[in-house]
Amino acid sequence: MFIYSAVLTAKPGQGQPASAQIMQAREILEGVTGRPTNAWMAVTGQPVGTFAISVRVDTVADLIDGQAKIGASSEYAELGRTSGEIWMAPAATSYQRVIGASSGDQAGSVISMTTATISGSFSDAISFGTEVMEHICSTTSNEGMLMLSEAPTIGQLTWVFSSESAEASSESDAQLQDDATYLAMYDRAADLFVPGGTQRSMAVRLG
User: Fold this and answer.
1) Domain 95-205 is of which CATH architecture?
2) I want to staple 33 with a disulfide (CB 3.0 to 4.6 A). Which of 66, 73, 169, 202 is the partner?
3) Model's pTM, two decimal places?
């Protein structure tokens, strides 16, 4: 399974139109492709006014087929006629392979994403990443997913943790700050990832 994402940042003063349009786009995309599609609004770690759409696909062929259907959609084309008034630039896209996931639904109300660039052994980094994901999911109420980037950057791992509410997210964060096993994992990560290159962001699901 893969996750395809498109990220857009609204122009100053265009936050409300951007939110409305991203929801319209989500509905059109899901209807046209028949694939579950989520819309997100960034809370931290991205420029103010950043929104995203994500969709799950099983293969590259599914992605290309979906984009062909979108390209043929008159409804989506009509929506795009006003995009230049709302967004700073065309969407930045990414494509990531899901290499591990807990058993629940990954699209909760709040998600946190941590991305690190591998500097050592890929197999060691993936093994470590899986261990981190499993530990957090067993320690907290979070559902988790581990992804390996396919585009635009190769060699990055992203952990995605999903909570059902802001309160649940806060509770999980507090649990981890007192978790000696989790804190020790930071030391182990030093030999596997580019120092200072880890990025973290948070988003809320709009639909």
Assistant:
1) 2-Layer Sandwich (3.30)
2) 66
3) 0.89
